[in-house]
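Q: Structure tokens for this one, please.
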Amino acid sequence: MKVFVTGATGFIGTAIVQELINAGHQVTGLARSDASAGKLVAAGAEVYRGDLENLHSLRSAAAAADGVIHAGFIHDFTRFPEVCEIDKRAIETIGEVLAGSDRPLIVTSGTALVSPGRLATEDIVPPFNPAWPRASEQAADAVAALGVRAAAIRLSPSVHGDGDKHGFIPILVNIAKEKAVSAYIGDGQNRWNAVHRQDAAKLYRLALENATPGARFHGSAEEAITVKTIAEAIGKQLNIPVVSIAPEAAAEHFGWFAHMAAIDCPASSRWTQEHLDWHPTHSTLLADIENGIYTQ
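A: Here is the predicted structure, written as tokens:
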């Protein structure tokens, strides 16, 4: 297939591009800079210059593709509602080009807010939450109604592995270094799920090749890891104390990240693994922390 990939030079996108090429697909990646274009060429991909706000570039690249993976997102939490709207418009724009063609479109979402406090499964479709206005799944559903094989991959809060500089684990590590303690909130028994970037990349390829309109796939290799366990692993690597922070002091310690540090979001991928024959094989989150990739 000729596959157009947004976010192609990001932490996950670079792994997706390599996974697609290794499987025999032709890849065109969206690039907004010379440096990004150079990365794509070096990886063996073609380049389409543009960005998520340049709707003309999205239309043109999607029109020439047999399928699209939308892995791009502007990670600027200071203007989160605005970047969520940009994401929604990008999906709608690509969907309009693919309408009626039965070509696949894979968009990106997350597992964290599917069903906080209980095990998230692929069949749970939560209502739109204005407090967290990312509408990737809703936009994909609207596109699917136009005759596009649009599906969503819900990624874990921690997509980990070499090269992870801006994910949730680096945030926790940086806070731990700044405060000289590795912390968790309360008893620390709230749970995250996790997936290695290489396993996530394979999931994107399998979803593209086997997309079912409206499907939700879970990029969750480990369905439940307590935040206390994560904090302990970070503390051991940094050789600093591991401490509990009272819930009322969480905002002061973690800043804007307090909400994610407190969330309880276990997530199953049983249906995804069965439906796509996806079986994660790469290192676990704790193994990556213990191997020092986040603290060296």
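A few notes: The CA atoms of residues 48 and 179 lie 43 Å apart. DSSP finds twelve helices and twelve strands in the chain.
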